[in-house]
Amino acid sequence: MAITKKEVEHIAKLARLGLSEQEKKKFTEELSAILSFVDKLNEIKIDKIEPTAQVTGLENITREDKGKKKTKKETDKLLNLVPEVENRHVKVKAIL
């Protein structure tokens, strides 16, 4: 499938690109070559081929997200590392 210079100019206008005459000629040839390749791909018969979403057979391994109860000593040790604490909670700047 060939693309015309007028179509390249239209695409460039939609993309708000300013192209020189040399660039228009170059893109006309390159886009025509790309569309010809896509046409070749469309000739392939894929009626009996099932879609493939995953070919390796690997699966994600996840673990259940469980919290761990900390002792008062462990909590105090962690709270001593932060710059600001309020009511035994870490105080941070508002982000909204």
Radius of gyration: 30 Å
CATH superfamily of the domain at 5-42: Glu-tRNAGln amidotransferase C subunit, N-terminal domain
Strand order of the largest sheet: 1-2
Helix-and-strand structural type: mainly alpha
> What is the chain-wise order of helices and strands?
HHHEE
Average pLDDT score:
90
Total count of helical runs of at least 4 residues: 3
Measured as a percent range, the helix fraction is 40-55%
| Distance between the ends | 53 Å
Strand content: under 5%
Give unreliable regions as ranges. Answer: none
Q: What is the top-level CATH class of the domain at 5-42?
A: Mainly Alpha
CATH architecture label of the domain at 5-42: Orthogonal Bundle
Description:
The chain is mainly α and 96 residues long. The chain has helices spanning 5-14, 21-42, 72-79, and strands at 85-86, 89-90. It has a domain at 5-42: Histone, subunit A (Orthogonal Bundle). It is 42% helix and 4% strand. Strand 1 and strand 2 form a beta hairpin. The two termini are 53 Å apart.
Write the layout of secondary structure elements.
Blueprint (H helix, E strand, L loop, with lengths): L4 H10 L6 H22 L29 H8 L5 E2 L2 E2 L6
Antiparallel strand pairs: 1-2
